[in-house]
ABC transporter permease
Amino acid sequence: MMELPATRAGHIGRALSATAILLFLAMPIVIILVTSFGADGIGTFPPKEYSTHWYEQMAAPGGNWATSIALSSLIASLTTVFSLILGATAATALARGRLPLHTAVYGLVLAPLLIPQVVIALGLFLFFEPAGMLGSPLAIALGHTVLAAPIAILIMISTLRGIDERLEDAAASMGANRMTIARRITFPLATPGLIAAAVFSFITSFDEFFIAQFMSTPDTRTLPVLVFNALQFDVDPTVTAVSAVLIALAVLALALVALVRKLGGHRDGRHALPVEPLT
């Protein structure tokens, strides 16, 4: 099909449309970032005066916000470890193994991404409540793993399928066992995927609300739960500072993933086996 030549007006129209869409999507983020530096106590936009008071209050040692941030960081770290273990093993079985009912197993692994989170949270509450584990960081981390592990598995499956299997075959032909191949070849080449899976698992846990709300206690409130409580009956301007920090964390995480992917692509290109032409 012959393409019509693009006109100058068409280029300008597309540029203006793209700019308008980006501004519309970025508007809530910009409003939160600007409001977080307001000096008033009602969170108005634009602020009449600017201050870092709400950031200082958020980071005050021993305060509710600092305690919740530390708890969320601990839970997210545990979730990341659990998700990487499950993600690496399940992705290896799905991408490299020949499992019976492969499609059914794959669908079961991804099911938590399709089920409403409130349903999963209720099921976890009914499971952990009789054991007296409500409020336990370990229990909340296990609950978050239910949501984070499928994401890690998807990333690891994509990563493993992008690795040249001839490298593993060459190592096996020279006498390397499966553990040696995994330790010396597969997982070093899969490092960008592992880092990406770790970043997204951490963010998924750090931002998760429903499971933390069902399983938290007055003494163990994660950051999203504390934000919800702070906005339920009143408007606490400290929430804007917390939101700004979460936005910065997400941006840094995405930048890290992009950097690792880029560096990993260059490394994979240097180590890939040459493809001989078909004759």
